[in-house]
Design brief:
By secondary structure, this protein is of the alpha+beta class. The chain is built from 9 helices and 18 strands.
Length: about 375
C-alpha cells in the first residue's frame, strides 16, 4: 500500500534529531509514524508491534509472527524480529533498547504497552517522539507531494461527477454512499470519510450523514477524502439545491473571498497564524466572524490531520514542502452552513494548489 521511499535516509535523519535531544532510543507502534519510517502500518491489535530505533544502532521491528508476512523487507533500513504467542514482546523491546536512559515514544502507542514498558524499564525516562517525527513528516518530499496531488485530482473528479447528480429527494446517507463509492472508483485505496450535511445540518461542521431528505433550497456541505497509496485526500465543496437564497449567496461570496485570501497568504516565512488571520479577517469584516468556529486548516499527509496547523497563535513559519488545508466556513445554527476546502503545498515562491475543482457554489437539482 505504501510506496517505495528512502526509509533508510528517514531513519538516519531521525537519529540525528534524537542525538540533538539526548535521546537513546525511539519506539514507534500504531499510527502513521511507523509507515513513514518503514512503509509498514501496524494493525491496532492487542499483540504488540513496535519499531526500536537506537540513536546509534540498527532499527528492529518487533512484530507478531502471524503479522510478519505483511512486512515488506527493507534490509537497508531495519530488520524484522517476529515473536511467538508464548513470548513477551515487551521484554524483547526493552532488551533491544539496551538500557536506554531516554526513550522517545510514539504518541499513538497504546497506554497498556507504555505502562508495561515503564515497568520493564523503571530507570528510563519516556518522552514524546513528536518533536522528532513531526519535524520530518511535516516537510514533504517531491514524491509525497506527487501522491497528494494525485489524491487531490481524484477528489476533484468526484466533485465533477457530483455536479451532475440529483440531490433533492435523496437522503444525506444516500449521497454519502455515492461519494464514498466514487472516491474508490476514482483510484483511492479506501474512502476514509464522507460528511454530507444539508439544510440546518450544514451548520454543524462535522455532521454525520443522517436519513434527512435533502430539499429544494438547501445548501449541502460535502466534505470527503480517502487514502491514495497511504496518503490522504480531503476536500470540501458546498452545493445549492436549486436557486440559493439571497442570504446564502451573500454569505458564500464572503466565504469565497476569505478562502482566496487564505490561499494568497501562503508563502515561505508566513506563519500558520498569519494565514488563519487572512481568512478570518475577511469573514469578520463582513459581520460573520462569530459563525466561523474552527481553525483555517490542518496539515495533511499520512494522516488527514497532522502538523502544521493553520490556526491563530501558530507562529511557526511555513516552509517549502509543507502541505495543509485552507478551509474557512460560515455556519448559522438552524439555518445553513458552508465551507470551501482545498489542499495546498507551500513552495519556494508561494503555493501549489492540489485541489482545483471550481470553488463556486455548486448548483444541483
Amino acid at each position: 500500500m505504501f510506496p517505495d521511499a528512502d526509509y533508510s535516509g528517514r531513519l538516519d535523519r531521525a537519529r540525528a534529531l534524537m542525538s540533538e535531544r539526548g535521546a537513546d532510543v525511539m519506539l514507534l507502534s500504531v499510527g502513521s509514524d511507523l509507515p513513514y519510517f518503514i512503509g509498514y502500518e501496524a494493525m491496532p491489535l492487542e499483540r504488540l508491534t513496535m519499531l526500536v530505533v537506537p540513536a546509534g544502532g540498527d532499527a528492529v521491528l518487533v512484530v507478531p509472527r502471524l503479522e510478519a508476512p505483511r512486512v515488506v523487507p527493507r534490509d537497508d533500513a531495519f530488520s524484522v524480529l517476529p515473536w511467538d504467542e508464548t513470548e513477551d514482546p515487551v521484554a524483547s523491546v526493552a532488551a533491544h533498547s539496551g538500557g536506554a536512559e531516554v526513550v522517545l515514544m510514539g504518541e499513538q502507542t497504546w497506554a497498556r504497552f507504555l505502562l508495561a514498558l515503564q515497568r520493564e524499564m523503571p530507570r528510563t525516562r519516556f518522552e514524546s517522539a513528536s518533536p522528532v517525527t513531526r519535524e520530518l513528516r511535516m516537510r514533504k518530499d517531491p514524491d509525497e507531494i506527487a501522491l497528494l496531488r494525485a489524491a487531490g485530482a481524484a477528489t476533484d473528479r468526484v466533485v465533477a461527477t457530483l455536479d451532475g447528480i440529483a440531490f433533492a429527494g435523496r437522503t444525506e446517507r444516500e449521497i454519502a454512499a455515492d461519494v464514498q463509492r466514487l472516491t474508490v472508483a476514482e483510484g483511492h485505496d479506501v474512502a476514509s470519510f464522507a460528511i454530507v450535511a444539508s439544510g440546518p445540518n450544514a451548520a454543524s461542521p462535522h455532521h454525520e450523514p443522517t436519513h434527512r431528505v435533502i430539499e429544494e433550497g438547501d445548501t449541502v456541505v460535502v466534505d470527503f477524502g480517502g487514502r491514495w497509496h497511504g496518503y490522504c485526500s480531503d476536500t470540501t465543496r458546498t452545493f445549492a439545491v436549486g436557486e440559493p437564497s439571497a442570504d446564502v449567496a451573500a454569505a458564500y461570496a464572503v466565504l469565497a473571498a476569505a478562502q482566496a485570501a487564505g490561499r494568497a497568504a501562503v508563502r515561505p516565512g508566513a506563519t500558520g497564524g498569519e494565514v488563519d488571520r487572512a481568512t478570518r479577517a475577511v469573514i469578520e469584516d463582513a459581520g460573520y466572524g462569530q459563525y466561523f468556529v474552527h481553525r483555517t486548516g490542518h496539515g495533511i499527509g499520512l494522516e488527514v490531520h497532522e502538523h502544521p496547523y493553520i490556526v491563530t497563535g501558530n507562529a511557526e513559519p511555513l516552509e517549502p514542502g509543507m502541505t495543509f488545508s485552507i478551509e474557512p466556513g460560515i455556519y448559522l445554527a438552524g439555518r445553513f452552513g458552508m465551507r470551501i476546502e482545498d489542499i495546498v503545498a507551500c513552495t519556494d515562491d508561494g503555493i501549489d494548489e492540489l485541489n482545483r475543482s471550481p470553488r463556486t457554489l455548486h448548483s444541483v437539482a
